[in-house]
From TrEMBL:
Protein location: Cytoplasm, Myofibril, Sarcomere, Z line
CDD domains: Bbox2_MuRF3_C-II
Descriptive protein name: Tripartite motif-containing protein 54
InterPro entries membership: Bbox_C, COS_domain, TRIM/RBCC, Trim54_Bbox2_Zfn, Znf-RING_euk, Znf_B-box, Znf_RING, Znf_RING/FYVE/PHD
Residue span(s) of domain RING-type: 25-73
PANTHER family in the record: E3 UBIQUITIN-PROTEIN LIGASE TRIM (PTHR24103)
Coiled-coil segments on the chain, per record: 182-238
GO molecular function, one term: zinc ion binding
Gene3D superfamilies, alphabetized: 1.20.5.170, Classic Zinc Finger, Zinc/RING finger domain, C3HC4 (zinc finger)
Keywords: Coiled coil, Cytoplasm, Differentiation, Metal-binding, Microtubule, Ubl conjugation pathway, Zinc, Zinc-finger
Length: 341
């Protein structure tokens, strides 16, 4: 049923949400502000909202006038008194007072249906109208006059407070998500810093290990080099010693032969035949024997002086070293190189 312009369910219990909705002005979307007027179509308006609506339709303020109900579009005809000639709905005003008292007694806020306040943003199109509704279609806050007559008259609107709460909650959730995202980014940043330190430490250990392995290779090469040089030196010393022994023997033989030669030459220089013949026979024998002996002297074998057998082949090792890389393949390559030998 309809009572004083309010819809009352048959069972008599009015849900709070429904009551708040019915106590809201269809123009400003806030709780009715006294005085409240009732239109012939039984819909209610704040008198101030009705006056704004009337003035927008009758800018030259002729006596009387017409405007349409913003709820049902019923054409309301005013007399010369204008909106002041409309009947006040005292019952609705009393219901508003009772509602406010009950809400204050419960300690609840009536912010959802708060009266008009001053010092709020005003509409640019209607300078005397405060921004009090939100256009859902255009996603913009606007005023009631824009909804009734302006560019938002065909749009869906909602109370500013409801959208405020919704978007405030949405922004709060977005901030929480952003803070959480920042936390994840901070954790990733710490991970990257830890990873950088780990890379540097691991690289330093790898360099140190690599240097140690090469130092070991150098040591092995130096040790092997010393062994091989010792072998060459040993054979060198043996051959030189043998050659010097032969040279000493040849020297001694040469000295004896030279002395015998000098003796034989002096014998030839003697003028007396008897004296010569006394020594010549022995000298002839000694000279022939010495000459024959020189032909049978021990000599080194052919190529005795050569050291070619000490030539070292390192091509396979060089090949392995040139291909040396990180991993376990080095041992296999070295084994393959040994098998090729």
């Amino acid at each position: 049923s309809v009572t004083c312009g309010l819809f009352v369910p048959a069972h008599g219990d009015i849900p709070m949400d429904s009551l708040e909705k019915q106590l809201s002005c269809p123009i400003c979307l806030d709780m009715f502000t006294k005085p409240v007027v009732i239109l012939p179509c039984q819909h209610n308006l704040c008198r101030s909202c009705a006056s704004d609506l009337y003035d927008s339709r009758n800018p030259y303020r002729f006596s009387g006038g017409v405007f349409r109900c913003p709820t049902c579009r019923f054409e309301v005809v005013l007399d010369r008194h204008g909106v002041h000639g409309l009947q006040r709905n005292l019952l609705v005003e009393n219901i508003i007072d009772i509602y406010k008292q009950q809400q204050e007694g419960k300690g609840e806020s009536t912010d959802g249906l708060k009266p008009k306040e001053s010092k709020e943003p005003m509409c640019q199109e209607h300078e005397d109208e405060r921004i009090n509704i939100y256009c859902l279609s255009c996603q913009l806050p606007t005023c009631s006059m824009c909804k009734v007559f302006g560019q938002h008259k065909d749009c869906d609107v909602a109370p500013l407070a409801a959208i405020y709460d919704a978007q405030k909650g949405e922004l709060s959730n977005a901030i929480d998500a952003l803070v959480s995202s920042n936390g994840r980014l901070q954790a990733l940043l710490h991970q990257m810093e830890d990873a950088c330190r780990a890379v540097q430490e691991n690289a330093q250990r790898a360099k140190q290990g690599l240097a140690e392995r090469f130092d070991l290779l150098y040591a092995v090469l130096e040790e092997r080099k010393a062994v091989l040089l010792e072998q060459v030196g040993k054979e060198q010393d043996e051959k030189v010693a043998a050659l010097r022994a032969l040279a000493q023997r040849y020297g001694e033989r040469l000295q004896s032969s030279s002395e015998l030669t000098d003796t034989a030459v002096r014998a030839l220089e003697q003028s007396g035949a008897a004296e010569f013949l006394l020594a010549s026979k022995g000298l002839i024998t000694q000279t022939k024997d010495a000459a024959k002996a020189s032909l049978g002297e021990e000599r080194p074998e052919p190529g005795f002086e050569k050291m070619d057998h000490f030539a070292l082949s390192t091509e396979h090792v060089e090949a392995v070293l040139s291909k040396m890389d990180f991993g376990a393949a080095d041992d296999e390559e070295f084994e393959d190189a040994e098998e090729e030998e």
